[in-house]
Amino acid sequence: MKNGGIFFSLLIIFFALLFLNAISSGVTGKNTGNVDDVNGVLVFYRSSPVTDFETMGTVKVGLTMSNKPEELIDVLTSKLKKQFPTAEAIVISDPNMNSGSAIKFK
Q: φ, ψ for residue 19 (rounded to 5)?
């Protein structure tokens, strides 16, 4: 009877930990979404990742042929890959899309 009680207690603890893990890793809400992958880089425009990250530096557009959003994002992601090869994403907070922060997830 004693071994059965210990087993039952361990089973309850296991399921409680499993439940807590599921809650903490699957946080979603109205402000959670998917982002685009451009040139192998995740692009966060006027938003930020939910996951913890570290900022590696800033990337600037410079001169471009036009100010179309697609071209600006393409230029930023291409420069990011050259300047910060280990960066996983870019956070573009500038509404004019002239610069962005290179980030790496923790």
A: -65, -45
Mean pLDDT value across residues 15-41: 74
String of DSSP letters for 79-91? HHHHH-TT--EEE
* Pick from 59, 63, 30: nearest CA to 47: 30
Contact of 73 with 29, CB cutoff 8 Å: no
d(CA 76, CA 99): 7
Task: Return d(Cα 91, Cα 100) in angstroms, integer.
Answer: 5
Q: For residue 101, which of 33, 47, 64 has the smallest C-alpha distance?
A: 47
Phi-psi group of 40: left, alpha or beta (phi > 0 → left; psi -120 to 50 → alpha; rest → beta): left
Q: What is the pTM of this model?
A: 0.71
DSSP secondary structure string, 4-51?
HHHHHHHHHHHHHHHHHHHHHH----TT----EEETTEEEEES---SS
Q: What angle (nearest 5°) sits at the alpha carbon of residue 56, between those of residues 34 and 92?
A: 45
